[in-house]
Amino acid sequence: MNTKPKTNSQKTRKIQLYRRAKCDSIKDDIHLPDIKFKKEILNKTHINILWNTPKEDIESSTSKIYNNKDKNSWITQKIKKVMRRIDGVIHKKKKSNHATKKLKQLKQTFQRKSSQAYWKYLEYIMTPEDNEDIRAPTKRFWTYIKHKKSYIKW
User: Fold this and answer.
1) How far apart are CA 18 and CA 9, in angstroms?
2) pLDDT at res. 79
3) Which of 27, 37, 45, 61 sits a CA distance of 20 to 30 A from 52?
């Protein structure tokens, strides 16, 4: 019998990048649900299916057209690799308590690499590159501040 309370982890929110939309495929994706819907009307399908089909088609087409971002910008492949190794060591540690030293070492490397990547990302936001416009880093900075600010309830 499991006595631990069930914890619900927060679902990651997708950030749709509209600037990188695939504009060529938008027209094709708009016409396909219309044709599909007309065929279903002719086949006399159930009303619930007719109601849900356009909604599902629109949701699937937006995921195809727009690129999604659901991670922090400074998380690199190397950091993800360390995270996966930590998960593997935790899995081994649950079976036998021999991997505590290795787990501690991996957690330290993860903390070090992620903080270095984060500060490198902040440095990229704050400082302009040689061939870049002076206003670009300030825009990146203020968008970063906007995403970081938390709303205080009085």
Assistant:
1) 27
2) 92
3) 27
Rg of the chain taking only CA atoms, in angstroms: 24
Which token pair is 21?
A: 């939309």
Lowest mean pLDDT among 38-52, 70-84, 114-128: 38-52
Q: Alpha helices of 4-134 — where are they, by DSSP H?
A: 24-42, 47-65, 77-95, 100-126
118 touches 91 (CB < 8 A)? no
Instruction: Match 């009307």 to its residue by tokens.
Output: 41
Average pLDDT of the residues in 58-80: 76
Task: Count other Cβ atoms within 10 Å, centred on residue 145.
Answer: 10
Contact yes or no for 147/106 (Cβ under 8 A): no
Q: In the structure encoding, which two tokens stand for residue 59, read together?
A: 């949701």
Cβ neighbours of residue 131 closer than 8 Å, sequence gap 6 or more = none
**How far, CA to CA in Å, does 64 sit from each of 20, 26, 36, 74?**
12, 9, 18, 24
The tokens describing 71, both together, are 């991670």
Angle between helices 135-148 and 100-126 (to 10 degrees): 130
What digits encode the pLDDT tens for the residues 104-134? Answer: 999 999 999 999 999 998 888 877 777 666 6
